[in-house]
Amino acid sequence: xxxxxxxxxxxxxxxxxxxxxxxxxxxxxxxxxxxxxxxxxxxxxxxxxxxxxxxxxxxxxxxxxxxxxxxxxxxxxxxxxxxxxxxxxxxxxxxxxxxxxxxxxxxxxxxxxxxxxxxxxxxxxxxxxxxxxxxxxxxxxxxxxxxxxxxxxxxxxxxxx
Length: 161
Prior knowledge:
Blueprint: E1 2-7, E2 12-21, E3 24-34, H1 41-59, E4 63-67, H2 75-94, E5 99-102, H3 104-112, H4 119-129, H5 139-160
Parallel strand pairs: 1-4, 4-5
Antiparallel strand pairs: 1-2, 2-3
Helix pairs in contact: 1-2, 3-5, 4-5
């Protein structure tokens, strides 16, 4: 099963693909979709739609997992990031993919074993679990892979139940 993980945003949207077969994880691809500051907000959202649709067409994932948004202070940033998340969900729906949502706490608990893990701990576990030489860069790509791993591990747990 190919799983597409998405770390949503409007300036940077991270993506990561893993193959989960026979209880084993394999790294397929990762990267980011960047939008240009100063460009119309609607154009930035269109860029996310276009590039994410290309990724879905290229890799033909079986499912998408996306992180739920969590913000403490800045409502404006939260609203703008939520627009980017909405575009990702729409891309998923247009492609007919099932979409699964996970909170940051669930991702950390699932990947590291501790829901309050630091970002560096999550990134290190992504490297270890996918047998990579280096931690994926930028952080948004590593986060997207963690979300995909979280979904794979959730499938494993569901199979056992």
